[in-house]
Amino acid sequence: MVLAAADPAAVRTLAALLAGGGVAIIPCDTIYGIVGIDPEADARIRALKGRDEGKPFLRLAADASWALRLTGRAAPDHLARHWPGPLTLVLPVKGGATLALRIPAAAWLRELIAGLGQPLLSTSANRTGRPSLWRAADIIAEFESEVDLVLDGGDLPDAEPSTIVDASSQPFRILRQGAFRVPAEDLR
After folding, report:
1. Does residue 53 carry a pLDDT above 80?
2. Average pLDDT over residues 24-49
3. pLDDT tens across 175-184, in order?
4. Pair 169, 76: CB distance under 8 Å
5. Which of 122, 128, 121, 124 shows the shortest CA–CA distance to 51?
6. Are the C-beta atoms of residues 25 and 149 closer than 8 Å to each other?
């Protein structure tokens, strides 16, 4: 199913599909993303992407307080002040693991996540090893038959993915430079 992002029923439809374990492709802050509720949609998104178990997905959360809820620790204040927006933080989790977390800038998406009460797994709309798709028609052609919903927000030709900062140990370091330019002093 394809719905225009501007359709008044689109977010309600998306919420219902996700709550029922569905997977969708939506326009995010930067690029189109494949999303589903964590952890229920993990295996299905991995199959769509062709991604192995060793590479985790980032989580989209409703607000910065979810960092504590999901990792047991608050995100560093000097980095969390850049949320919401296109900044993904890799945060430490008890036991030595990490979790990548982003608070999206789009108010409708934060409200959707808050309403679901669970983070969304998110990854770029492409097959592993291939470029991210930015033309809505290409996304629909590639994925419509494999996802429950494509939310068509138009083409995103100049979009960059989020910037990823590893904040699990100091000094913090940029893992991927993307749409957000992290001030150098925030990496200390």
Report:
1. no
2. 92
3. 989 888 888 8
4. no
5. 128
6. yes
Q: Which one of 3.30.300.20, 3.40.50.300, 1.20.1330.10, 3.90.870.10 gives the CATH number of domain 2-178?
A: 3.90.870.10
* 3-state helix/strand/coil string of the chain: CEEECCCCCHHHHHHHHHHCCCEEEEECCCCEEEEEECCCCHHHHHHHHCCCCCCCCEEECCCCHHHHHHHCCCCCHHHHCCCCCCEEEEEECCCCCEEEEECCCCHHHHHHHHHHCCCEEEEECCCCCCCCCCCHHHHHHHHCCCCCEEEECCCCCCCCCCEEEECCCCCCEEEECCCCCCCHHHHC
Q: Are 153 and 5 in contact (CB under 8 A)?
A: yes
At 56, list the tokens: 């985790």
Adjacent-strand bridge partners of 91: 99
